[in-house]
Every structure is written in structure tokens, then in C-alpha cells.
């Protein structure tokens, strides 16, 4: 054995304690460090010939790379839709690496059983029935891709071909309809050989909405003259967290032949809140569902789930035909359900967080984040230099500059907020306006953090902070 490996093995408990102490210092101070550190270029070095051992590697990382990492797991990183990692989820994630299970099958490990139990908990959490089965994947993009891959196979069934055998070309032109599709949808269509150009955008409801106009969707389906199609419905849009009427869309299946895929990447968590659970009404009727867990479940990257009512199609698409893997009979191994052969046990952090905090704990995170988004929205509405672009429906605040809100000015505002070290927001374009969006999904975020974000945005916009009344 290489001397450095042998030495590390003999001192493994001590090394793990060093890593634990370093991580504890980093995590405990995450609320005080700059959310986005100053831009500095760290030059790449040549590959070491012999290496310095784990302790030396930790020291070099701490010196060269750690200072440039963002505080994306912290309470004021409001860009994209980024959760943190609850204490229980971090515990599960560390054990995931320690056990290093390849969660593809159940022959020699209980890992698959744990994943199935976790999927059952999540299915219950999101209001899905037992007809839905699922699997863990890396993120919402892969979850959407898996769902649309099953839709592609379903379309083939309708036309009398097996796309998994003969290829997507056998389908001819495919019609994919959606009101406000996330950018991962055309990406998935590209990967699947359907093509980005086959996505047909259906008009949305008037009045600044991002929810599809169901009547116009019915018209679009009617115009297909009986051809089967795919409908991508949204449970929480990126800019304003708008929800399609899932129940009304599902009822269209009584008249038209289409596969219903629901992108509920983060909006699916509305089901946890009694005040907002109605927004996901009808999700159980979907043929496939995407939910991203490293968003509002607050587990570490990467983790998402996909659910479907059509496991037979899933096995047909993802079956790995090899003698050493066996046939997918009975309860198929996960190797036959996702694009991956090698699969990290990414279910374990979710299992830990759900076991530790239950439905009530995760509902509290959702409801607290929603209240914080409302608080920020109210504060921004009171600043004369800023303008809300949409009501705060759930956990995202979409706003812009009053007056001339050019791309340059709005992006400069976002950079100024980031350079302050106080917060990080991401830009968008909504209702013909360049804008910024603040997405609340971190379990650590407090009212104090929310007020610090408002103060940073207000200062960057050139106005003194208004009174908050508290």
C-alpha cells in the first residue's frame, strides 16, 4: 500500500475528526461570511507526484479554495431556488459517503429498501397515491428528462412502435404543450431526440399570470385532430410561483389523448402548508411528476425524485440488459428505472431529514419561508426606487427598478447587492421587464436575515431603508 494511504488508514478516526472540526467551523460561521466572496482567481497547480496525505490535502483546500466558496447553504443566498442542508441531512450525507453504497439493487444491501421507504414518505408528503412509484435522480433536469422519456415511450405505444427499440425518429413530429415551461424542458426534449422546436407555448391567463389558460390548452389539443401529445403542467413557476390548474388540465384527458407531466420542482412543497395545499390539487392524476429535493427539502446537492404511474414503461426505457444484473421482475431494481447504473445513495440524507423532523418540521420551514418572502415583498413595495412585478404567491419575490429598468441597470443592482456580501439574487426577465428575484427556501433564514436583504437591496437602489414597523 502507498505510504500516504497506509498512514491515512492508520489515522482515519483522527482525520475524520479534523474534517468534522473544519466543517463545523465553516457551517457555524456561514451566516456571518460574505454570501458571495470577492472574485479572485486561484491558479491551477500541476498534479502532485506523491501527494501530501489527507491532512495535507485538507490544509491546502482550506488555504487555497475554501475562501472562494459561496455561502450558498446560508440564510441569505436567495438566488435560483437553493435550499441548504438541515443538520440531519448533513448527517445522512456524511454517512452516505462513509457507507459508499451503489444503490442499484437489493441483492446485497438494504440501501434499496431504505430508498423505497423514503419514496413512500415523499409520495405521502406530496399527496400522490400508491399508483405512483418513483426513484431518486440527480436533480429536476434529470427528473423532467425521465418523465418525458416515459412520455416518449407512451407516444410510441399510441402509434404502434417501441421507441426504446427503434428510436425517436419513428414517432415523427411530436407535440409538447406548456404554458410557462422551465428551461429544463427544452433541454430534456433535446436530449431525448424530440427536439427543442417541438415545444409549443400555450397562452397563459391574463393579468400578469404564468398559469396556462386551460381553455386555450383545450383549443390546442383540439387542433391536433386526435394525435396524442404531451402536456407539461407547472406546479410553481420560476418567476412568480404560479400554478397551473392541475385538476382542470387532468379533466381534459377525458376528451383528449395526452401524457400529463407535472413539473413540481419546488412548488410541490406547497402541499405541506394547509394554506397553500390547494395549489397542488390534482397532481395525483399526473402520469409523471418531478420534484427537486435539494431545493425546499433542504438536503445537500444532488437529490431529486421522479414519480410515475407507468412503471412498465419506465422499465422498458431504462432496462439494463446484462446477465450479471438480472431481469427486472417483481419489484425492479433501480438500475432498471433511471439513466444511471452507478447510483449514490442520495436517498439517505432525505431519509434522515424526514425521520428527524417529520411532516411538521418541514411544513414549518415552508410556512416560515413563505412569510419571509411576503415580508420582503412588502418592504420592496414601500421603496420608491423599486417596483414589485407580481404578487408574492409563495416563496419568490420578483421585482425591478422603478423608472428606467434597463438590463444594465438591473444587473448592476444585482451585482451591487452581491458585492455587499449581504445577499445574492438572480436576474430574470418577466412581463417585458428585466428584474431580480429572491427565492426563499433555506431552513436557516430568519426575519433578521430578511431585513438584512431588504436593507442591502434598498441601499444598492440608492434609497434609505424604509421603516418596517418592527
Automatic annotation (TrEMBL):
Gene3D superfamilies, per the entry: 3.90.1150.170, Aspartate Aminotransferase, domain 1 (3.90.1150.10), Type I PLP-dependent aspartate aminotransferase-like (Major domain) (3.40.640.10)
Biological process annotations from GO: carboxylic acid metabolic process
Presence of keyword Transferase: yes
Cofactor(s) listed: pyridoxal 5'-phosphate
Keyword tags: Aminotransferase, Decarboxylase, Lyase, Pyridoxal phosphate, Transferase
Modified residues (N6-(pyridoxal phosphate)lysine): 295
GO MF entries: aromatic-L-amino-acid decarboxylase activity; pyridoxal phosphate binding; transaminase activity
Annotated Pfam families: Pyridoxal_deC
SUPFAM superfamilies in alphabetical order: PLP-dependent transferases
Xref: InterPro entries: Aromatic_deC, PyrdxlP-dep_de-COase, PyrdxlP-dep_Trfase, PyrdxlP-dep_Trfase_major, PyrdxlP-dep_Trfase_small, Pyridoxal-P_BS
Keyword Lyase recorded: yes
Family statement: Belongs to the group II decarboxylase family.
Protein name: Aspartate aminotransferase family protein
